[in-house]
Amino acid sequence: DVVIDSWEAGEISALSVAPGRVGEQLALEVTSSGPPVVLKVRLAESRPVLIKGVIRHRLRCQIIDSSYPFVDKRQIEAPVPNQGKPL
Q: Facing residues of 7 across strands?
């Protein structure tokens, strides 16, 4: 289980209790009041962060495919990694 921290065109940042492996492909099911959204993502970065005295892992994921009908296909294409981009 993860908690989504931010969701921008082509990328999701999430917090997890466990680290991830860079390059790993995952299916992320996002639930809300509507139907679930299934996203195929590739883990671009996993790093530990301290939140309220507890170590969590910030996972930066590039969206590679989506079942979400309102996402423009150009938005889910993986962007060129920006090494200086803050999370």
A: 12
